[in-house]
Amino acid sequence: MPPLLRKLLVPLVIIVGLGCFVVAGYWGADPDEPLVGVPALEQLIPARDAEILQQGVVGVDLQPGWEGRLRINSVFIPPAQLEQDSGLNQLLFRPGPGKVITALDQNRNCAEVTFWQTAEGAENAQPVVKWCFDVT
Questions:
Q1: What is the pLDDT of residue 30?
Q2: d(C-alpha 2, C-alpha 21), whole Å
């Protein structure tokens, strides 16, 4: 192989290899990417399209300074039935006896959260975020 061709081929192979890494990064993006741009939400629990058990936890992880309300399959979850951890600012619900939902439905379930900045109050709530997941 002529030296000039070798000098051009090596950088070209390196550039193509780096390009492959960039393309793979875009194709392998996290399915929860839509949360980017929603400043109040850190995490949906479970993630969109995840699989959980009938007694699995459903909820959200909010940024500090935000509050919210949770609905699962159109059922409002009373605040007294949420596992609230003010240190982590999570709204979590685990179905069980004596609760508004004793077990999640088999197959597809959907949840939604309405959230607002604590300082502004619930009357200034942000648009609802909805997500669905499967129950096995």
A1: 46
A2: 29
From the list 80, 83, 78, the residue with the least C-alpha distance to 93 is 83
Q: What residues does 134 pair with on adjacent strands? A: 51, 108
Look up residue 121 and give its amino acid.
Answer: G
Q: Is the model's pTM score more than 0.85?
A: no
The angle subtended at Cα 43 by Cα 37 and Cα 44, nearest 5°, is: 105
Helix (H) or strand (E) holding 17: helix 3-27
Rounded Cα distance between 24 and 89, Å, is 34
The model's pLDDT over 52-86, given as tens digits with 9 standing for 90+, comes to: 999 999 999 999 999 999 999 999 999 999 986 76
Cα angle, residue 112 at apex, residues 108 and 115 outer, rounded to 5°: 165
- Do residues 99 and 81 make contact, with C-beta atoms less than 8 angstroms apart? yes
Whole-number Å distance between alpha carbons of 73 and 46:
14
